[in-house]
Fold this sequence. Notes:
This is Pirin family protein. Belongs to the pirin family. Residues 181-285 form the Pirin C-terminal domain. It comes from Shewanella aestuarii. By secondary structure, this protein is mainly beta. The protein has a single domain (3-251), classed as Jelly Rolls, CATH 2.60.120.10. It has one helix and 23 strands. The protein has one helix at residues 269-280; strands at residues 3-8, 10-14, 18-24, 34-42, 52-57, 60-68, 70-75, 80-84, 88-92, 97-103, 111-119, 130-133, 141-143, 148-157, 166-168, 178-185, 190-193, 200-214, 217-222, 225-229, 235-251, 259-261, 264-266. The strands form four sheets. Strands 1, 13, 14, 15, 16, 17, 18, 19, 20 and 21 form a ten-stranded antiparallel beta sheet that branches. The longest helix is centred in the C-terminal third of the chain and has 12 residues, at 269-280. It is globular, with a radius of gyration of 19 Å.
Amino acid sequence: MNIISKTQSRPAMDGDGVNIKRVADFGQQRFDPYLMLDEIKSDDKQDFIGGFPPHPHRGIETFTYIIKGGFEHRDHMGNVKAIRAGDVQWMSTGSGVIHSEMPLADANEGLHGFQIWINMPAKDKMRPAIYRDTTLNANPSLSNDKGAKLIALAGTWQFADTPDSISNTHIEGLAGNGAIADLTLIANNQVSLALNQYEAVSVYLYQGSLIANVDGEKLSFSAGTMLSINPQMLAQFHAGEAGLGCLILAGNPIKEQIVHMGPFVMNTQAEINQAVEDYQQGRFGTLSLS
């Protein structure tokens, strides 16, 4: 695995006092088309019980994946869904969405999940909002005899040593040019993925460790690390003593100037100002909490 850069997640707080780990880059856009990854992982309800009360978005796609626990999603389009372990939710916010994400009352064993922000091309930022989830369709997966399991959360995937491939057809978004997978490995095992159809790939480690050779030295990378890798070289994932769990974010950079303010990501400051005005004037719609 050829590692281009390493970024460490940082503790942050969002919503109504929700403790998260965050990797974000709205300036240099090193993960383009991905902008931010938030991880929520706690067995203590006080870390997430406040949830994310109603708030707006414009100009991005949000991608949510739950490993443990769950939350209830509500939005101004009338969608009300319980998103539980194993589910994926994708929302192309486009010209505007108001939604809330609150912990499920019956989620008593903690919460572990991710929300990823993906940028949208300027030509699509003002299109109508779209919502999709996989609550009625299990995410397809591949396993091998080496203890590797790959879950296709979006896009098409395959191991490098097998012709078998899987594709998640239930999530249509990711700005039209991306794919996300959850890869797990048992201790001391490895697997390879060919990712050269993409221009940019990042790997977020959420469990165990990844062993990789960097400039001839064997290094161990731990959970909470985001690695940007060269997709033109075969990606070899080698788990450490505690195994490995990671999200793989693949895509093609949009390469457009962005301006970011809170929940809005647009291309100019004037567009940000318009988003704020539209929200304040109630042009995003109304979210019903009943």
